[in-house]
Amino acid sequence: MAVTDEAIEKIKAMIVAGELRPGDRLPREADLAERLGLSRNSLREAVKALSLIRVLDVRQGDGTFVTSLAPQLLLDALNFIVDFHRDDTVLEFFEVRRILEPAATALAAERMPDDQIEELRKVLTSLPADATIDELVANDLEFHHRIADGAGNGLLCSLIDSLSGPTTRARIWRGLTQSGAVEKTREQHAAILDAIATRRPDLARSWATVHIAGVEDWLRLALHEL
């Protein structure tokens, strides 16, 4: 079991056992991590995932609370996740991305003007170390759009942009649940940028393929385990 999944299960067990009741505030992060035998980072990721499905409510400056756990509240969140998991057609979007984006990335390595490469670098470096999942996904979308635009083919850029929306939910869910997904995304983006900046189209194509195929493989596994 992934570390984040284990953390989620431990928090859920506290709620099921009645140790945490609707409206209760969670103990301090450091205290709860020690009590559950978790790292603070794993606990933090678990809280993000449970807040997404409305089991927890994170209130800035006030703490993290168990929600009312009202059936309708949880049902709305469950419907979101069930829709996502049932909609395996999203795999088809990833398959098309895996065909188009590596080609666009290779073209960008050949055609992208130096000033646009520097702007791409700014997008990458603008992401804070403690970025939220929303910030990470927004940065990811901008990064890929600029590469597609840098390929110098308007039709190709439009096609790639049109594929971004249907795959956004998968990106968010992966970032919340797969251990190391955030760090891996950062590393692969940096490798793609370096290949483009050093004008190595074959390497740029390879890194883009690895990057997109990684999310696609995770999604296939997630759907298979349902």
UniProtKB/TrEMBL annotation:
UniProt keyword Transit peptide present: no
Key words, A-Z: DNA-binding, Transcription, Transcription regulation
Bilayer-crossing regions: none
Classification via CDD domains: WHTH_GntR
InterPro entries on file: GntR_C, TF_FadR/GntR_C, Tscrpt_reg_HTH_GntR, WH-like_DNA-bd_sf, WH_DNA-bd_sf
UniProt-listed SUPFAM superfamilies: GntR ligand-binding domain-like (SSF48008), Winged helix' DNA-binding domain (SSF46785)
The UniProt record lists the keyword Cytoplasm: no
Record GO terms (molecular function): DNA binding; DNA-binding transcription factor activity
Domain HTH gntR-type residue range list: 1-69
Superkingdom of source: Bacteria
Family matches, as PANTHER family: TRANSCRIPTIONAL REGULATOR, GNTR FAMILY, UXU OPERON TRANSCRIPTIONAL REGULATOR
The name this protein goes by in its record: GntR family transcriptional regulator
Biological source species: Paractinoplanes tereljensis
Gene from which this protein is expressed: pdhR
